[in-house]
Amino acid sequence: MGSKPTLRERAVAYLAQREHSRTELARKLARHADDPAEIPPLLDELVRRKLLSDERYAEVRANALARKFGATRIAWELRAKGVGDAAIAEATREVRATELTRAREAWAKRFGRAPRGAAERAKQIRFLQGRGFSFDAIRRVVGGADEE
Predict the structure, then answer these.
(1) C-alpha–C-alpha distance, residues 36 and 130, integer Å
(2) Terminal CA-to-CA distance of the chain, rounded, Å?
(3) Residue 27 CB neighbours (<10 A)
(4) φ, ψ at 126 (rounded to 5°)
(5) Measured between alpha carbons, how far is 130 from 137 in angstroms, rounded to an integer?
């Protein structure tokens, strides 16, 4: 059998699989570190070598989540992974620009027709709110004012 991988090798292996936020990678590495103090310098080195980037992670993750969710939900997901506000704002800029179109698509896929009554309207609104779409987009899609 081979020897136990070093913390650096583990970090690079995680990053080779997919992008990670600094906080997420630190959490994963903490399980394998003999001394937790060795993690921050390793992460700093990975950032300097451009192997680790919260901005790149935020952009990739926002694009993946945009297929299904609104900007509010995407920002919440990124914040939960430890991404800073500036990186979140940059990553969600394009997502916010296409919010109405994506809300229409999610609504059409799930419901496909205008609500028939208050209960159905509330159900459709809750669905889109749960997906993190803006109130304005929800109002325009469910309220029938979706055409500009």
Answers:
(1) 37
(2) 64
(3) 14
(4) -60, -40
(5) 13
Q: What is the DSSP letter of 37?
A: G
In whole angstroms, give the CA distance from residue 10 to residue 2: 14
CB 15 within 8 A of CB 25: yes
Tokens 């009554």 identify what position? 117
- Do 82 and 24 contact (CB within 8 A), yes or no? yes
Structure tokens at 134: 């803006």
91: region left, alpha or beta (phi > 0 left; psi from -120 to 50 alpha): alpha
Q: What is the pLDDT of residues 94-137, one digit of tens each?
A: 899 999 999 999 999 999 899 999 999 999 999 999 999 999 99
pTM: 0.82
